[in-house]
Write a structure and sequence with these properties.
- The chain is built from twelve helices and five strands.
- It is elongated, with a radius of gyration of 27 Å.
- The protein has helices spanning about 20-35, 40-55, 60-85, 105-115, 115-120, 135-150, 160-170, 175-180, 200-215, 230-235, 235-250, 260-275; strands at about 125-130, 155, 185-190, 220-225, 250-255.
- The protein binds adenosine-5'-diphosphate and magnesium ion (MG).
Length: about 280
């Protein structure tokens, strides 16, 4: 970048173009950025030009600063759109998880999952445990981390998937629905086994899992049903076994068998009442 002042258009006297031709070049530069739809760079142009002049930046440094503004803004927009698509039901992050409150969880395993290598490998994760132990929280934390790392993520419950597939079958949109669930790099299927699965729902679930297995896309499942009970819990035992086979071929099982976090405050109250200690509301 030239050390002679360049038109910045910021309005301050120092930033005013010195010559007619500088003003024309500045306007053309803004027009180029506008034509290329680099709106954030166009908006930042006066500021970057001022900075470049003040710090006597080279042309390379100035250009890098200008384009970095556009890259950052584009990344922000893409992340916002990935998060909107992901439909995460809570803003939880992995860092919000309190391991001391849940000694039943294998912290090293969660840290390994948090590297997101499992997504590169197309591996799955099954969170198995009773209600309230943090299965959904960990699944959401991993989903958010994946979206932030640039992956396309979608969160749904098993009941919702079953209902949407049922409706799609009736309306002749089955193939479209299957393509939808096959698409995301990471699919989170929450609360499998909380409600009984009808035979058509189990078949839909199997097809989703089978397609994703064939594509090498990762699925995270949270369930209260231990692996040994899958055959009886999900309708047809053969379908259940085939589903488990796909899930576990490249998969890790995270068993969480600790106290319910939801019941903690109730337990604390009960214990406090039992000892006659003061109970905070
Ligand atoms: P699950 O899916 O196993 O039923 P959730 O993930 O929904 O349990 O957790 C229940 C509630 O307890 C949520 O509000 C969650 O944020 C909180 N929770 C559970 N475990 C922890 C933990 N270890 N640290 C912090 N909050 C937790
Ligand atoms: Mg849950």
């Amino acid at each position: 970048m030239s050390s002679t002042p360049i038109a910045s258009g910021s309005g301050t006297p120092a930033a005013e173009p010195r010559t007619q031709s500088e003003a024309e070049i500045y306007q053309r530069l803004r027009a180029h950025l506008g034509f290329l739809k680099l709106a954030d760079a166009a908006e930042a142009l006066p500021r970057i030009l001022d900075e470049a002049r003040t710090a006597k930046l080279s042309l390379v440094d100035g250009l890098e600063k200008l384009l970095a503004v556009e890259v950052d803004a584009t990344e922000d927009r893409r992340l916002t759109s990935r998060l909107r698509f992901a439909c995460l039901p809570a803003p939880w992050r992995l860092s919000d998880f309190d391991y001391t409150a849940q000694p039943g969880v294998d912290q090293a395993l969660i840290r390994e999952l948090a590297t997101l290598r499992f997504i590169e490998e197309g591996a799955n994760a099954l969170f198995i445990g009773p209600p309230g132990v943090g299965k959904t929280m960990l699944a959401i934390g991993l989903a958010r981390a994946s979206a932030e790392a640039g992956h396309r993520v979608y969160f749904t419950t098993a009941a919702d998937l079953a209902a949407r597939c049922h409706k799609a079958a009736i309306e002749g949109r089955w193939a479209t629905m299957m393509r939808f669930y096959a698409g995301p790099r990471l699919l989170v299927l929450d609360e499998l086994g909380y409600l009984p699965l009808a035979a058509d729902a189990a078949a839909a679930l199997f097809q989703v899992i089978n397609t994703r297995y064939a594509n090498g896309s990762s699925t995270i499942i949270t369930t209260n049903v231990g692996i040994g009970a899958w055959a009886t819990a999900f309708g047809d035992p053969i379908v259940a076994a085939a589903m488990l086979d796909r899930l576990l071929h490249h998969g890790v099982v995270v068993g969480i068998d600790g106290p319910s976090y939801r019941l903690r405050s109730h337990q604390a109250r009960a214990e406090a009442l039992g000892t006659g200690a003061e109970v905070k509301p």
